[in-house]
Write a structure and sequence with these properties.
By secondary structure, the chain is of the alpha/beta class. The protein has 11 helices and 8 strands. Strand 4, helix 5 and strand 5 form a beta-alpha-beta unit. Homooctamer; tetramer of dimers.
Amino acid sequence: MIRLGINVDHVATLRNARGECYPDPVRAAKLALEHGADGITAHLREDRRHIRDEDIRRLRDLSAPLNFEMAVTDEMVAMACDLKPHACCLVPERREELTTEGGLDVVGLRDSIASPIKSLLEAGIRVSLFIDPEPEAIRTAAALGAPVIELHTGAYALGKEGELERLHKAAQIAIECGLELHAGHGLTYENVSPITKLPGLRELNIGHFLISEAVFVGLGASVRRMKDLLS
């Protein structure tokens, strides 16, 4: 069974649009878990545009795994080592981007991210690297000691030709490197089924689409339907 992590960032986006205390991303996380989600993902951005520090603390205290998405900065590494979430997913971050635009450049940043990865692992945190489906990036992730990679599926979701084959090849390399395989970005009811066929896939992290669909059918129903598609 492929695990489903629900990203609650955009519940916080809606809350922050009016500066209110609602809707509460932690309430959304609890509801998602009640309806079959296996874990919660939240990205604490440096500009705090959606998830805030207190959200992360409250999400960490839920009786379910928290996947803490973060840029590789001293501030975020220190916070993660203090809070000790179940997992940290290291992602690229640019303040001017609307959403994460691609995978972390683990090849180019190898020397600068080696120490943060080691610190997180020594704190007992499962580390994953959000990367594009490129062979060199996957092998570098393994060499850096990260036990998990999350393949960026954004280009596939946009319909880029040959991207599904590229993801399959990347998944096979991940297996050869002994890495646990996750995937996510831009996935919907319509495009998720081919991704579930990736060899060795253990987890998908999906947020924006399911939160958007919840406007029409409710969060519980949107999560249950996605879980049905994964099974």
